[in-house]
Known about the structure:
The chain has two helices and no strands.
Amino acid sequence: MYFDSFQALLTMNGHGIYVWPAYLITIVVIMAVLIAPVRRSNRLLEQLAAQLRRTESATVSGVRGQQ
């Protein structure tokens, strides 16, 4: 193994303070890129469902008003 101990892995000969935040930022960005379209799709589906309910409600009340 390249590192002798877990502490050596974390410090990486003084470079760990730069390496680990870079990994963290990369993971956060990748997660955001993966999650954002799913959330956007869910929000769009909810908006379409609400619009459909409003349209159906208006159609039903319009039919009742004509009778």
